[in-house]
From TrEMBL:
Needed cofactors: Mg(2+); Mn(2+)
Keyword set includes Cytoplasm: no
UniProt protein name: protein-serine/threonine phosphatase
Class of this enzyme: hydrolase
Annotated source species: Linum tenue
The organism's place on the tree of life at top rank: Eukaryota
Ranges of residues in domain PPM-type phosphatase: 1-169
Sorted UniProt keywords: Hydrolase, Magnesium, Manganese, Metal-binding, Protein phosphatase
GO molecular function terms noted in the UniProt entry: metal ion binding; protein serine/threonine phosphatase activity
Pfam families referenced in this protein's UniProt entry, alphabetically: PP2C
Family: Belongs to the PP2C family.
């Protein structure tokens, strides 16, 4: 299980989400959105669960998961979702968007990141920048890839928090 949580207006919603991942995520996220209608804090998140050769990616908010499939970026963004933000429940739902796919040999790596990256770097640009670091069979360098992506977003003027995680998918092939 991998995840990026991007809190806003305080850490309460992100902390709640990260502590309750082991339970039914959809039910927990939905209940957290209703637990305090007066709360002004909230969080966005993107998570990835890998089990038995399957990749399950869930997104609630403007964090994003992008997969490199043979060098081609595949990703999505759901901006009308979030955890908490009780005052926005008329417009924002907490039910995550979820996709399930089989990890195939051309599935190289997954980038999980907050909007601090995605506001300044496109899906394909991110894959193109770091692919050589993530597909080197002898010495992949995912930590260096994360740093390069974050540094690019900062150079382009990102003022938002930037969290980046790379998951090497080849090790999960069945």
């Amino acid at each position: 299980m991998f995840g990026i949580f991007d809190g806003h207006g305080g850490a309460r919603a992100a902390e709640f989400a990260s502590k309750n991942l082991g339970e039914n995520i959809s039910a927990e996220l939905s209940s957290s959105s209703r637990s305090d209608e007066n709360a002004h804090g909230g969080a966005c998140c993107v998570t990835a669960l890998i089990q038995d050769g399957n990749l399950v990616v869930s997104n609630a908010g403007d964090c994003r998961a992008v997969m490199s499939r043979g060098g081609v970026a595949e990703g999505s963004l759901a901006v009308t979702r979030g955890i908490g933000d009780g005052h926005l429940k008329e417009f924002v739902i907490a039910e995550p968007e979820t996709k399930v796919l089989r990890i195939e040999p051309d599935c190289e790596f997954l980038i999980l990141a907050s909007d601090g990256l995605w506001d300044k770097v496109s899906n394909q640009e991110a894959v193109d920048l770091i692919r050589h670091l993530c597909t080197d069979a002898e010495k992949p360098k995912p930590a260096l890839a994360c740093n390069q992506l974050a540094e690019l977003a900062v150079r382009r003027g990102s003022m938002d928090d930037i969290s980046v995680m790379i998951v090497q998918l080849a090790r999960f092939l069945h």
